Amino acid sequence: MSVSPSTSTRRSSRLCTTGPDAPSQPGLPHSGEPQRRPDQDFRRSGFAACGLDGDRQNAAQARGFVASTLYGWGVQHLAPDASLVVSELVTNAIRHALDPASTDNGDYPVWLGLFLHPGDLVCAVTDPSSAPPCPRQADGRATGGRGLTLISSLCESWSWSLTPPQGKTVWATLPLRSPAV
């Protein structure tokens, strides 16, 4: 398991860990393993998680984490859709689940998990609120409110569940298909 180092003296806005199959940086083998081509062992399993502090930059950090992880797993063709899905899930968690006035959100109140299964990729975001996600109908002038609609159009399924002792996890699955040749 690797942990991304902080490069500044202030607390890093994310804490990311990856399973043994995911490199810490795109294109670099992890712990001496030989680098795989994307078509090798395509149906492997994997897990990676990233703790986020609720900062406005977390969506961008989450997209980078997704791209790096999926490249390491050899399924980088999923990165554009997965990055959009994760960006929407993280943004919703930060906007709607965290109390901006609270100083008691904890160091990493939002967690992103990626799960690679034989048939799909699951993107899951956990936050401290037990309020369910609420799809909205955004009119043409609205600058927001389309996130769950985008997720619905890209994913095979999405849902949420309560996460004891508090909070919820919102997840979405993307089909795991080999890249077009």
Describe this structure in words.
The protein is of the alpha+beta class. It has helices at residues 58-72, 79-96, 147-154; strands at 2-3, 14-18, 46-52, 110-116, 120-127, 157-162, 168-175. α1 packs antiparallel against α2 (79-96) and α2 packs antiparallel against α3 (147-154). The model is unreliable at 1-11 and 20-43 (pLDDT under 50).
List keywords for this structure.
single chain; 181 residues; alpha+beta; seven-stranded antiparallel beta sheet; 3 helices; disordered N terminus
Rounded to an integer in angstroms, the radius of gyration calculated over CA atoms is: 16 Å
Question: Approximately how much helix is present in the residues?
Answer: 10-25%
- The count of DSSP E runs of length 2 or more, i.e. the number of strands, is 7
Task: Give helix and strand order, one letter per element, not per position.
Answer: EEEHHEEHEE
How are the strands ordered across the major sheet? 1-2-3-4-5-7-6
Alpha plus pi helix count: 3
Kindly estimate the percentage of residues that lie in beta strands according to DSSP. 15-25%
What is the terminal-to-terminal distance? 33 Å
Low-confidence stretches: 1-11, 20-43
* Shape label: globular
Q: Structural class from helices and strands?
A: alpha+beta
Q: What is the mean predicted local confidence, pLDDT?
A: 76
Sheet having the most strands: 7 strands, antiparallel
Give the arrangement of secondary structure elements.
Elements: E1 2-3, E2 14-18, E3 46-52, H1 58-72, H2 79-96, E4 110-116, E5 120-127, H3 147-154, E6 157-162, E7 168-175
Helix pairs in contact: 1-2, 2-3
